[in-house]
## 1
Amino acid sequence: MEAPIWVSYAALWLATVALLLLLSTNRRRRKLNLPPGPRSWPIIGNFNLVGSLPHRSFHNLSQKYGPLMMLRLGSHRVVVATSVETASLILKTHDLSFASRPRTAAGKHTTYNYSDITWSPYGPYWRQARKMCLTELFSVKRLESFEYIRTEEMNSLIKQLFSSNGKQIALKDHLSNVSLNVISRMVLGKRYLDEGEENSIIRPEEFKKMLDELFLLNGVLNIGDWIPYIGFLDLQGFVKRMKDLAKKFDRFMEHVLNEHNKRRATSEEWVARDMVDVLLELADDPNLEVKLERHGVKAFTQDLIAGGTESSAVTVEWAISELLKNPGIIDKATKELDLVVGRRRWVQEKDIPSLPYVRAIVKETMRLHPVAPMLVPRIAREDAQIAGYDIPKDTRVLVNTWTIQRDATVYENPEVFSPERFVGKNIDVLGRHYELLPFGSGRRMCPGYSLGLKVIESSLANLLHGFSWKLPAEMKADDLDMEEIFGLSNPRKVPLVVVAEPRLPRNLYDL
Ligand code: HEM
């Protein structure tokens, strides 16, 4: 049977439209001046070039393709900036064009459908979240009001190390406990995770495992994020793990919010004691531009706990590792501490500005071991032009601070751990100096940087002031493995095992 005449017309019309579309896309593609990069394979793109430490793979590629290169990972274009100039173009000059985050399965499943701060897209909700961080959660006054918590937890770390009695310890376990306790007291109002706490909803070990899983799942290369049409297969099983984890976190968050709401409803002179209280109060504010819902409060809370726990512990563990390889630096630091603080008391937060050498050690550690070596991925909200190249909308954007912070044109002998390079120099970590960006820069810069710095600087200062650090007897400094593993943080591959011996009068350890 012959097809009716309109079918032939329709077919002809469709073919013409398809041809025109193809021509116009090709013309557009030909006109784009994309940054240089390796040729890509169908479907996988350049995934074959990315190893288990992606920042190092991108570093090697940048040596060939230059400081702004473009790759294709699965279905997505990815631009990687690896110099001071290109980083500042992205994070400063064109910050607004790149101020959003890509949508990932982790953001969807583990942060209440992008309702947290880290993964929420650029827009009024995220802007309001940042305002809350600035004026409420991390204001100078709020952070000062929690100083007693940081001091108490620091004291408890000192006591634990003292009682290790010269035996070998896995340092990061102790450091994570301090950060987790500090952050849970500041954010949740108490050590919900205390072993001794009656009716504890969750054991500390279980909670730490959940945090490790959260970090891992937020850092992994989940195939479905890159090749979306096979995402439903969940070939690596990550999405299932994300959903399981989200249920566990939600159970905990529900408990926390219920307890806080109960206290608020029953106490007559209620005042906000912790960050969850502040968030619940904000959630009730009818004048907020965008309503903060219950799931938003839970997502923010989870972000604060996750952001505040791992990063400082990882950084201090790296610092002590580097120092064990460089005993001369420890000597210089302890001389400074003895001079400024003296041997009759512990270091307080107010001492930190007077300890330039200890602060230089922290900077040097963050230079060589950034917690987020490629910051957190961003996405182009609109077409942009960087250094004469076109960056089309929806391109994912990474700033490889790992490469920048090892750039031999910026740092002399970049592989050498040398705090001296920062002494007397006007380089800080506040996002203004693009050669040192451990907290990122621009609109998406870490909002918790001042808290993070306080915890890192005063922990390190007290660890150096109060203890002599040694490797286990059978180990030499040269044997110390300095490999890392990739995730959303960049910890040591092999946890550091050390011996801590008291160096101050014994009575000081009676805390
Ligand atoms: C050593 C300590 C820390 C380091 C090195 C660190 C590093 C970073 C980095 C590199 C980013 C991404 C910046 C970018 O995309 O340009 C970030 C974002 C973030 N950090 Fe931190 N951070 C630390 C401590 C904290 C603390 C203590 C908190 C909260 C309690 C926190 C909460 C966050 C949040 C919520 C974001 C997402 C911001 C956004 O997307 O708007 N961080 N952090």
## 2
Amino acid sequence: MSARLVVLLAVTASLGVVAVGQEAQIPQSVSDYSCSGTNFTDGSQYEKNLDNLVSTMSTAAAANGNGWFRSGSVGAAPDQASGLIMCYADSNVTECLDCLRNATRGDLKGVCPHSRGMSINYGGCLLRYAETPFLGTADTSGWLASWWTPAPNTTDMATMNETRWRLLSGLTESVGDQPLRFLNGSQAYTDVLGKGQVVYGLVQCTRDLPPSECTSCLKFQLRAASDPDMVNSTDGSVKGFSCYLRYQLNDPIDINAALHRRPPAMSARLLILLTVTASLSVVAVGNDDAQQVPASVSFYTCSSTNYTHGGKYEKNLNNLVSTLSTEAAANGNGWFRSVSVGASPYKASGLIMCYADTSVAECQDCLRNVSRGDLQGVCPQKKSMSVNYGGCLLRYSDEPFLGIADVSRWLATWWPPEAMDVASMNKTRWWLLSQLAESAGDQHLRFLNGSQAYTRTWLGTRR
Ligand SMILES: *[C@@H]1O[C@H](CO)[C@@H](O)[C@H](O)[C@H]1NC(C)=O
Ligand SMILES: *[C@@H]1O[C@H](CO)[C@@H](O)[C@H](O)[C@H]1NC(C)=O
Ligand SMILES: *[C@@H]1O[C@H](CO)[C@@H](O)[C@H](O)[C@H]1NC(C)=O
Ligand SMILES: *[C@@H]1O[C@H](CO)[C@@H](O)[C@H](O)[C@H]1NC(C)=O
Ligand SMILES: *[C@@H]1O[C@H](CO)[C@@H](O)[C@H](O)[C@H]1NC(C)=O
Ligand SMILES: *[C@@H]1O[C@H](CO)[C@@H](O)[C@H](O)[C@H]1NC(C)=O
Ligand SMILES: *[C@@H]1O[C@H](CO)[C@@H](O)[C@H](O)[C@H]1NC(C)=O
Ligand SMILES: *[C@@H]1O[C@H](CO)[C@@H](O)[C@H](O)[C@H]1NC(C)=O
Ligand SMILES: *[C@@H]1O[C@H](CO)[C@@H](O)[C@H](O)[C@H]1NC(C)=O
Ligand SMILES: *[C@@H]1O[C@H](CO)[C@@H](O)[C@H](O)[C@H]1NC(C)=O
Ligand SMILES: *[C@@H]1O[C@H](CO)[C@@H](O)[C@H](O)[C@H]1NC(C)=O
């Protein structure tokens, strides 16, 4: 409580940057920013590219496990917009997601209206964009330093300063080699009174920077942290638009462990598209009897004809479904079975299959549930049905259908783009899946997996 928080905004004189606090409408979460470039006009191609860039980057940075960072560019010169977005390694998941989400919502418009270029430090994340390529080059034009005056009873400033310097210099030299471009560490020392002390440090660069740029950016900030104003502080940070440095005495810095992990599925956006060809009289998901459909059913179709309760067809069907699921689960024949039971006109034919990427436990669970009559809730009394559970597929009918592909409908799900070089990704994906599609038919078990590497092209990247 007795310590004092000091904030210093340092800007090199040659830049026409706008300092914090000049405009009333700037959100509080904005700690520092600079605008650059000329203005774009409303509705221009540049504005469209910029909107696209910012929303793609923030969605991708929030959705995937790639360490809360994204860089990329959209469009072609002269309307090309390049940018990056990054959460600070010591911001927690909530704060980071909140920050990324807000960055897409056009808060920026209040900050740098119509400006073609901008760098902005929110509390938890950093957003930059420009019309000229800047990725790969550190911006050391300005920084925001904040620190606390020495904690009470801290003695031996000389040793503290020296230890801090040694720790942060070491981190600065090594962080460039880190794929996620951040590094934390600590350094213990004994002060003149014989008391043990520990300095904790964190350094981080934006991930577009090559090692040398990252290190030189941090060296620049380390000098700022050694200014007379800050030299005796026991808790401080220097935030720029390309790198970040923080230190604390006797108080570990929380690193966001989730930097390495995919965030909870709920916070990402899973897109689901159900496509139905118009010519079919199928029952779609979400109709009146949707309430009793189990959650594991992802989509299904039913025929229009009913069987009679207690009739021969129903008996054959019960026999069919239980045989299918038992045999598919019991033998080693690749979790597939197709069978017919009975004779016309009460003959029931069917197949059951687990998806090749389903785990054994999930597959067995799925096959077991199918035999338990969940289906009756899905298509009560219907003679034919196709149903996709999460892990397996069941089809049956009174009409012969084995040997004929049903391409009448499908359920597509996907994650928002994680790659900026969509063209190369799409080309590679198309090539790979085409090859697999050509060869899968010859496979005894009718499945095939594969992979194809490609090199991303970063439009607008300098190195
Ligand atoms: C750019 O747009 C802002 C706000 O729309 C305006 O205040 C500023 O004068 C413009 N700058 C130039 C150089 O046109
Ligand atoms: C995340 O950080 C914010 C801002 O510092 C803080 O208010 C919040 O309590 C933190 N949440 C967790 C789960 O640590
Ligand atoms: C995000 O926006 C909401 C609503 O305007 C605001 O309450 C919150 O503080 C913002 N968070 C950040 C990190 O900017
Ligand atoms: C600082 O030292 C004094 C005297 O030894 C002690 O009374 C006080 O509690 C200490 N303050 C802190 C924050 O440790
Ligand atoms: C802090 O430590 C650095 C590195 O040892 C040194 O260059 C600098 O002069 C020190 N500053 C003070 C005020 O002791
Ligand atoms: C870095 O931070 C993590 C998480 O806060 C911590 O577990 C780890 O010990 C730290 N590493 C060092 C070298 O201090
Ligand atoms: C830092 O602390 C030392 C020792 O307490 C003191 O001699 C020195 O004047 C302080 N430096 C500044 C810039 O306040
Ligand atoms: C088929 O059975 C369902 C459920 O038992 C019933 O609601 C429906 O009216 C029946 N349709 C025909 C054509 O009999
Ligand atoms: C199987 O049924 C059980 C009990 O109704 C349910 O908890 C589980 O999620 C179902 N599993 C699948 C894969 O449908
Ligand atoms: C994706 O690749 C396929 C095959 O090369 C091509 O036909 C299609 O137009 C591409 N789509 C986009 C959006 O680039
Ligand atoms: C196919 O999947 C298996 C099992 O996950 C894996 O070991 C193998 O490497 C994959 N094959 C290719 C070509 O990716």
## 3
Amino acid sequence: MTLSITPTCATSKALIVGLLSGAALTVLLTGLFTKVSNKKHKDQENQVNVEEHVETEIVDGVAGLIGNTPLMKIKSLSDATGCLVLGKAEFLNPGGSSKDRVALNMIQTAEEQGILKPHTGSTVFEGTVGSTGISIAMIARAKGYKAWIVMPDDQAVEKYQLLEKLGATVEKVRPVSIVDKKQFVNLARERAANFSHGEAYGYFADQFENEANFQAHYTLTGPEVYRQTGGKIDALVLGAGTGGTLSGITCYLKERVNNLKVFLADPQGSGLFNKVKYNVMYSPTEQEGNRRRHQVDTVVEGIGINRLTQNFEKGRRYIDDAFRVTDEEAIKMSRYLVREDGLFVGSSSAVNCVAAYRTAKQLGPGHVIVTLLNDSGQRHLTKFWSDEYLKAQDIYFELKPEETVHDFVK
Ligand SMILES: Cc1ncc(COP(=O)(O)O)c(C=O)c1O
């Protein structure tokens, strides 16, 4: 007997109906499944987005507030020169200055190297004119360390007060030469060396020579300026104390921006101007018997120095030229920026702005010039911003209502 495999008409009809309904069911189910899985995916997507959103909106403690400062157009100087004069608003950092970046990176680097361990009584020592000390005191508190700050005793009083409020030990010493063992940086080094006991380590931050200072600006501030200007920048103008800011930003930008010019803004009394111009570290006001007031003979705090540091040396080969800025120019510039822009800055920012104006005049209209607004005038109320103090020191310069930047910058 042979079994027939040829379907009858009825069976083939049933088969076709079966196949069609199977296919329809498959399409329906696939559609349904896709819809459900798409919705699930969308929900997941929404959830992920929400989380990402939350993550980007919330910063982690005071350290999370550091950096990414805006780059602002300084209208008065831009209008006066036909250039775009930009100031990076470093005074918006939580500790009030660009030094927050440095303090954070120095402490973080020491932690990564296993030198500092939190909540062990370990103490960060630093010799500073104030800003770095304030930033160190803030980060130290946030991370479980103590801070011991050695400072010259001729700085604005609000800096000592801030340090004390932040819980730092403050040691004020007479300003003397770096070759003296009692100089504030030397003393901080010595205090750290004699401190360690048990788990508690005495860490000398050493901003002048510590590479983490340079790195903070090479890895953060420099890239920020590059991003914010889209790489369209003709000149960078900065003063130098440790030189970390100048070298870090300069090295990053010079590797990427063709024809970038870098100018040093140096206050009177500092030797860096002559070093850049003539390769001789010399300031006439530092001659024996000539020196009057401060470590460097200027009312300006934070920039100007009479020795070469590792952090300055890292970027020195890239500096194209230098401007010397007098106390009179810096004081008048600070008052001018308030009058014209409502911009209240400290003394080193005022020096930077005088040099930025000179750079703009030298390059001519149409150029983009970047400088830093390191800290606010609030840090300088009792010195640079005090008419009484300036009169008592015989360095009072009034900005007359009719005076413009063209009049007071030589
Ligand atoms: C207010 C202020 N501006 C500028 C600077 C100079 O920065 P740097 O030390 O990176 O040269 C300092 C340094 O202490 C400072 O305190």
## 4
Amino acid sequence: MPSKDLPVTTEDQALEYVTSCQLPTTWATFQMHAFVETATGKEHIALTLGDVADGTPVLARLHSECLTGDALFSQRCDCGPQLEMAMQKIAKEGRGVLLYLRQEGRGIGLLNKVHAYRLQDQGADTVEANQQLGFAADLRSYSLVEPMLKHLGISSLRLMTNNPRKISAMLGMQIRVEEHIPLIIERNQYNERYLSTKVSKLGHLMQPDL
Ligand SMILES: [Zn+2]
């Protein structure tokens, strides 16, 4: 047993909670919680609204960082509109959690995403582009979700996602997904092929044509 004088971080502690503050947004004033990943030093954020630790299922979004979509209004993907819709839904309900996971470009990083977009400009689809660069189609990991939610006192979710991998990733954790809520985003001329590839090659559950 470590004594109280030893550092807080231990080998099995993948994530360290740092601090929290208020984050006023267009839709609500969230609580923002900062975490740092022990192994990599990567910084991650959770936004919460209302009492999320009362034991009842929490409306939730597990959002992986996409700088171009989330901050630069890119129409190459649907990340920005999904983030916005999730925050709006949480604000409307007055209760929920959004984990903002720093795994840019489905885990390949920002510069590699630019390389991948260039290959897509030349005709590859999003999966082929990643593979041509030597990456798996999707390198995202959800291993930090459990310690982040645990810290926030959350054990069951009403998960907003179109991605069955996220739902199955939760199965191995002590997190229950009580409900799956799709986020249907309108297609445009730039994201049409991307969204179709997500359905045909990555198993996403979107049915925007219905
Ligand atoms: Zn994106």
